[in-house]
Amino acid sequence: MNDQDIRADHADRPAEKIRILLADDHALVRRGVRLILDREPDLEVVAEAGDGAEAIAMARTHDVDLAVLDIAMPRLTGLQAARELTSLKPGLRILMLTMHDNEQYLFQALKAGAGGYVLKSVADRDLVAACRAAMRDEPFLYPGAVTALIRNYLDRVRHGEEAPEQLLTPREEEVLKLVAEGHSSKEIAELLFISVKTVQRHRENLLHKLGLRDRLELTRYAIRAGLVEP
């Protein structure tokens, strides 16, 4: 097989599918949601659960990339299951699929580790896009949820509470900027007149405080925070 044949062979292979765990206590709802997801070439429901406890058990025995959870379920709710799954499988993405257009549920879902909140009433329109966004580590919220988040942020600012940007100390912000600009730990140490070990400690603190995983995510955060040009 020549190089051209190899390239053609790779081009013909389908992209790896996103493996989905679907949890809802209503079998008819699961069937409908599964139809929406399975008809997409890049999505596949590989496990189903009827409640939160079963969802956790399924996550232990199946290789899944994304969990789509109903909020109101027996034994363990979707919110409780999301917290358990986040701890059990830190790399697992989570979406909440719910009938509740409710700010309290929304904020609880985000705190539990969900990256998106989709209403069942518009699942045929939004769910596929939400799944793909989750796998890109992008949040997905319906318009009313975005409004709630903005209102919550403005209320916190109005009451003098710290904005997220103020989570970092001035020194951590300096280190973050230099990391995002591509400087090594040794270069940052020399620029700030601190030890390499101190630089590394600041980097670990940044990752922990911001809930990020690596240098690339730190760079993206620095761009969003206006510390460096994109």
From TrEMBL:
Residue list for modification 4-aspartylphosphate: 70
InterPro entries (UniProt xref): CheY-like_superfamily, NreC/VraR/RcsB-like_REC, Sig_transdc_resp-reg_C-effctor, Sig_transdc_resp-reg_receiver, Tscrpt_reg_LuxR_C, WalR-like
Entry keyword set: DNA-binding, Phosphoprotein, Transcription, Transcription regulation
Superkingdom field: Bacteria
PROSITE patterns cross-referenced by the UniProt entry: HTH_LUXR_1 (PS00622), HTH_LUXR_2 (PS50043), RESPONSE_REGULATORY (PS50110)
Response regulatory domain sequence ranges: 19-135
Ranges of residues in domain HTH luxR-type: 161-226
Descriptive protein name: Response regulator transcription factor
UniProt source species: Streptomyces althioticus subsp. attaecolombicae
